[in-house]
Amino acid sequence: MATPESPYGTSAPVVAGGKPVRVHHLAAAKKDGTKLVMLTAYDAVTAQILDAAGTDLLLVGDSIGNVMLGHDSTLPVELDEMVVATRSVARATKRALVVADLPFGTYEAGPEQALASAVRLMKAGANAVKLEGGSPRAASVRVLTQAGIPVVGHLGFTPQSVNMLGGFRVQGRGEAADVLLADAQALAEAGAIALVLEMVPEPLAARVTESLTIPTIGIGAGARCDGQVLVWTDMAGMTDWSPRFAHQFGQIGEALRQAAVDYGAAVREESFPSEKHWFSS
């Protein structure tokens, strides 16, 4: 049930009854008009909570670099770090479809490198991998798909290309809209199972969504995508700042800070631990 101060209610997940979300469920959701719910996760504790909440897809994003590892971009993230995070999330997940990012430098050389990197993530427990870029990535998507590895594409603002894009800027304006649409179609034709659209104009996201048979998942791309994804720390209010396209559905950061303050006070005033917390013999 929605909280009194929240305008958001509840709705049924893509797959009810605790059954695992599979690739074919994504296509069925698009056909039925059921919105897909995706959140990032980087560890077992968070993944278990988000999975139990009915989240359809958990993205082990290379955003772990910004969110958890203290980097100012996703570029420094290593494949070994993604393997550890993917394994942690997969072990804790019973229902959601786990998608793992291929980090920068692990697939750009071509299909052979992409396949080797994707295999490592799949062995770690991923159900699919995600890569950034348009038509130049179609060959890699095709090879991975033929190898039995589901692929999610990512267009619009692609964080791994932040230096070429001139910073965190909306993509697909003007003549670039037709290029993005062509890229989306190329990825779909190559076998991608879904497509993330990040920071693209809402009309363009709607146009791409209508043109594809595979679902689109938006982040800063408006409401007409087939689903939405957010970084979980933005969604849960873990920090004072969050992107314009995010909504804080909780204030977990403040709750955690207050819990730490209360713990510290209890230790210093010697009210914790009390007799109920220790062993007498």
From TrEMBL:
Its cofactor is Mg(2+). The active site is at residue 198. GO terms for cellular component: cytoplasm. It is an enzyme of class 2 (transferase). Its EC number is 2.1.2.11. Mg(2+) binds at residues 62, 101, 132. Binds 1 Mg(2+) ion per subunit. Pathway: Cofactor biosynthesis; (R)-pantothenate biosynthesis; (R)-pantoate from 3-methyl-2-oxobutanoate: step 1/2. Keywords: Cytoplasm, Magnesium, Metal-binding, Methyltransferase, Pantothenate biosynthesis, Transferase. It holds the Pfam family Pantoate_transf. GO terms for biological process: methylation; pantothenate biosynthetic process. InterPro entries: Pantoate_hydroxy_MeTrfase, Pyrv/PenolPyrv_kinase-like_dom, Pyrv_kinase-like_dom_sf. GO terms for molecular function: 3-methyl-2-oxobutanoate hydroxymethyltransferase activity; magnesium ion binding; methyltransferase activity. It catalyses: (6R)-5,10-methylene-5,6,7,8-tetrahydrofolate + 3-methyl-2-oxobutanoate + H2O = 2-dehydropantoate + (6S)-5,6,7,8-tetrahydrofolate. It comes from the Bacteria. Gene3D superfamilies: Phosphoenolpyruvate-binding domains. 3-methyl-2-oxobutanoate binds at residues 62-63, 101, 130. It is found in: Cytoplasm. Homodecamer; pentamer of dimers. Belongs to the PanB family. PANTHER family: 3-METHYL-2-OXOBUTANOATE HYDROXYMETHYLTRANSFERASE. NCBIfam families: panB, PRK00311.1. Catalyzes the reversible reaction in which hydroxymethyl group from 5,10-methylenetetrahydrofolate is transferred onto alpha-ketoisovalerate to form ketopantoate. This is 3-methyl-2-oxobutanoate hydroxymethyltransferase. It comes from Actinomyces oris. The lineage of its organism: Bacteria, Bacillati, Actinomycetota, Actinomycetes, Actinomycetales.
